[in-house]
């Protein structure tokens, strides 16, 4: 595609949670077919990037960031309409804002399995051919069958023989080949449908942006087959901050970069190569984790006793040089021996009573040890992260975009800037480091994506109405620009969209719900249209359904005209 070389120019895009975007041909939730009318509408208005959340198989879970395979596409997204099936499960009217993904997937599986059984010879032949070209599917199909069979257990709780992936794969494909190939057949269908979408987008001059989670569910095919790629006694998370005094525990095992390096990062290469069949750009989830990641003992319920991994730590003899015995401070809960004769200091250890009760002379010798190797650590982390990102770029022609939100250390921020990695700036959080105030449009990072909301935040209208001081928002987004203060929700949203599109960011990609001009349900009750609320139960998230069919949404002349004007005025129309 010749124009692909010109992707890095001023553009606007739309971020969608695919199951939420329902077409008149959808089977209850959004699917791969939904991307066609979405593309046609985006092209008409002037958007040229469509960004999707991960499409990986979530199994019995809900979050696409906790999938059971780093490769497999969720059968939920297979379009029955594209397969030529006329099965429908809904009326044209959308009455509820929640999908039921597991139920919908099971209904689809029944329909496709019936076809598979009736056309078994041809279907199994197609699946076998796909399997020969995509070897990861061998492990996935075996795992998926066992995962379905042992519904309430992680793979480490399965019968011992099935905990061995080599035995399990050989057994499943010899004794239950027909069932195993059904799961391969599903992946073949999803692959065909999604790769055809990419071709369609190229023909229309649009770009698809995918999402690559950095972490993988403990109960996944990848961890089952390659536990050596992960540090199983650690879980990833985030250290304590102003938002969470005890930090965050995510449950995902920590990547073992040393082992991955010995394989020339083959697992990552295979992942990126597969993604490239479907996407032109991709988001690197939690790019900070490529440099270092907060690692916590897997049994811990809080992140307080974690540390940045990898880490040199403070050697036993470095304590001894100061006349200190590290075991004494370990018993006080201030440090931890994370590898033989090497210790890490716990987060905010100096706030603990065990530290406060120490003699001042002891504190004076102990505290400097906690900062002893900071410069060396940062240099090592920077070099390691850059090496990984450079290797990633060599694996694919897709354009990487870094999710660099949160508390990003200056050395990582500098590294991403030097590498010219495209970052992300969320308007509500993009403020002056000195005054804490919002910054003007011209002060945004040029090599970034400006957004009003993300899948993990409230919608921008929820933020406007319910978070922070509304008067300061009015003064900045309207008074400062000599614009009349808004008298309706539509006028508020229009003003915020005008601002974000006019930022100096290379791309400006907005959540689909934040483009809902003239949709009362979204504007008046934005809290009901949120995709995910981090830290809450999995099944209460990731089930959102937009209240209007995409075809009906796309036919609104007034909304399209308003959005088209915003994109033209901001120089982002494709």
From TrEMBL:
Cytoplasm listed as a keyword: yes
Sequence similarity: Belongs to the disproportionating enzyme family.
GO molecular function, one term: 4-alpha-glucanotransferase activity
Annotated keywords: Carbohydrate metabolism, Cytoplasm, Glycosyltransferase, Transferase
Any Gene Ontology biological process: carbohydrate metabolic process
InterPro entries referenced in this protein's UniProt entry, alphabetically: GH (IPR017853), Glyco_hydro_77 (IPR003385)
Enzyme Commission code: 2.4.1.25
Organism taxonomic ancestry: Bacteria, Pseudomonadati, Spirochaetota, Spirochaetia, Leptospirales
Catalytic activity: Transfers a segment of a (1->4)-alpha-D-glucan to a new position in an acceptor, which may be glucose or a (1->4)-alpha-D-glucan
Compartment(s) where it occurs, according to its Swiss-Prot or TrEMBL record: Cytoplasm
One term under GO cellular component: cytoplasm
Protein name: 4-alpha-glucanotransferase
Cytoplasm listed as a keyword: yes
């Amino acid at each position: 595609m010749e124009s692909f070389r010109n992707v890095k120019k001023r553009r606007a895009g739309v971020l969608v949670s695919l199951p939420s975007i329902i077409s008149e041909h959808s089977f209850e939730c959004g699917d791969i077919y939904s991307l066609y009318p979405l593309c046609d509408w985006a092209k008409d208005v002037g958007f040229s990037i469509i960004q999707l959340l991960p499409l990986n198989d979530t199994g019995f879970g809900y979050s696409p960031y906790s999938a059971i395979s780093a490769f497999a596409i969720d059968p939920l997204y297979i379009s029955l309409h594209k397969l030529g099936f006329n099965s429908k499960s809904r009326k044209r009217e959308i009455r509820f804002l929640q999908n039921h993904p597991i139920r919908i997937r099971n209904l689809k599986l029944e329909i496709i399995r019936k076809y598979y059984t009736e056309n078994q010879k041809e279907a199994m032949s197609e699946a076998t051919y796909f399997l020969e070209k995509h070897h990861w599917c061998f492990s996935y199909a075996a795992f998926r069958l066992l995962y379905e069979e042992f519904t309430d257990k992680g793979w480490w709780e399965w019968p011992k023989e099935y905990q061995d992936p080599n035995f399990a794969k050989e057994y499943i494909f010899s004794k239950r080949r027909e069932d195993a190939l059904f799961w391969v057949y599903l992946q073949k269908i999803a692959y065909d449908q999604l790769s055809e979408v990419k071709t369609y987008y190229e023909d229309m001059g649009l770009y698809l942006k995918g999402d690559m989670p950095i972490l993988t569910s403990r109960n996944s095919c990848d961890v089952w087959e390659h536990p050596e790629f992960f540090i199983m006694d650690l879980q990833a998370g985030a250290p304590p901050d102003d938002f969470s005094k005890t930090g965050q525990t995510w449950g995902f095992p920590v990547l073992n970069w040393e082992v991955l390096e010995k394989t020339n990062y083959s697992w990552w290469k295979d992942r990126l190569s597969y993604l490239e069949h479907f996407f032109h750009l991709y988001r690197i989830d939690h790019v900070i984790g490529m440099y270092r990641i907060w690692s916590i003992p897997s049994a811990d319920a809080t992140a307080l006793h974690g540390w940045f991994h990898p880490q040199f730590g403070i050697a036993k003899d470095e304590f001894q040089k100061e006349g200190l015995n590290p075991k004494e401070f370990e018993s006080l809960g201030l440090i931890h021996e994370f590898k033989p004769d090497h210790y890490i200091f716990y987060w905010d250890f100096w706030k603990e009573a065990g530290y406060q009760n120490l003699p001042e002379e002891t504190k004076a010798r102990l505290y400097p040890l906690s900062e002893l190797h900071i410069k060396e650590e940062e240099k090592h982390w920077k070099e390691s992260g850059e090496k990984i990102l450079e290797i990633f770029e060599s694996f694919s022609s897709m354009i990487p975009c870094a999710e660099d939100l949160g508390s990003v250390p200056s050395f990582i921020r500098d590294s991403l800037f030097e590498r010219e990695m495209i970052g992300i700036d969320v308007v509500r959080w993009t403020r002056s480091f000195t005054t804490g105030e919002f910054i003007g449009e011209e002060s945004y990072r040029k090599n970034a994506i400006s957004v009003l909301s993300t899948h993990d935040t409230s919608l921008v209208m929820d933020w406007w109405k319910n978070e922070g001081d509304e008067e300061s928002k009015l003064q900045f987004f309207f008074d400062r620009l000599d614009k009349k203060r808004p008298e309706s929700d539509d006028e508020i949203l229009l003003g915020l969209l005008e601002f974000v599109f006019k930022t100096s960011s290379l791309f400006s990609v907005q959540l689909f719900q934040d483009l809902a001009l003239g949709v009362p349900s979204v504007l008046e009750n934005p809290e009901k249209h949120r995709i995910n609320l981090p830290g809450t139960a999995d099944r209460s998230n990731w089930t959102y359904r937009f209240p209007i069919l995409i075809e009906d949404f796309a036919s609104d002349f007034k909304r399209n005209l308003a959005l088209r004007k915003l994109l033209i005025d901001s120089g982002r129309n494709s």
